[in-house]
Design goal:
Bound molecules: calcium ion
CATH architecture of the largest domain: Sandwich
Shape: elongated
Distance between the termini: 74 Å
CATH topology of the largest domain: Immunoglobulin-like
Order of helices and strands: EEEEEEEHEEEEEEEEEEEHEEEEEE
Number of helices: 2
Helix content: under 10%
Radius of gyration: 22 Å
Structural class: mainly beta
Largest sheet: 6 strands, mixed
Oligomer: single chain
Amino acid sequence: MAEPTVQAEQVVINELRASGTEPGLIELFNPSMAAVHISGWILNDGSDLNRFQIPDHTIVDPGQYVVFTDQDCGFKLNSTGGSILLVDSVRARVVDAVRYGAQALPRSLGRHPNGSGTFRTLETATPSATNSWLYIAPVVINEIMYDPISQDSRDEYIELHNWTPQDVDLSGWSISDSVSYAFPPGTVLKASSYLVVTKDAARLSTTHSGVSSNQVYGNFSGTLGNGGERIALCRPGALGGFPIVVDEVTYGTGGRWGKWSKGGGSSLELIHPLTDHQSPDSWADSDESTKAPWTPVEWTEC
Ligand SMILES: [Ca+2]
Ligand SMILES: [Ca+2]
Ligand SMILES: [Ca+2]
């Protein structure tokens, strides 16, 4: 049998979980057609202090996985965020590197799609197996009005939806990046219901008379970019620690992102909660004729 070829770029860090009630893990994956010898390669967390040399005779076969626990590595990944580097021993270069934020333990982070995509929170940890579907939080970013037809940023809003049968306490939750907003203590989003966070709450209550005032929150600071931007919904970390991203979307404009949401009178609406919210295919221009749960009244036909 031929010696495994060294194809440094063909092994990726595919899944990770920081140490918590479940042991920490780092999963490597070989997406290529050739076995890769990774003996002597180094895993570290970006510091010289915490480094692990992969043991002799470690080979990752094509389409296969190798998993190291925090016990194997001799150091623990930080649950409030950090880095992992995979360094090739032959050329002493970084083969793959991952930087991650605060984790929603015991859920893991992993590439989506498996082996190639960006790191996302996964529904279930899958050491030595194909990564699971994405974890979908009980409350999702459901609708985005980033470029109102009025050309007035005060008419911008973000709608959140609790798609589960349980009420969710949003105390300490926040929206960040393109705009900033922190929910006041005691905010509860009831089961199967919606709320709106806007740039100008008083104005929205007059322009959208069908919206109950207890569904309207704000004002957020900043504005939603008309050329696309990232919106993140965060909940507080354990013991008031670093905020954990529970849902995020980096919306775009045009093409698969739709035509009418960019200043044409529509908003962007999530088609279904249980989709990949980072994919444009999961979003569509709102249909103003059947808009739910509330109907804008300010639009006039040309
Ligand atoms: Ca996996
Ligand atoms: Ca805007
Ligand atoms: Ca809606």
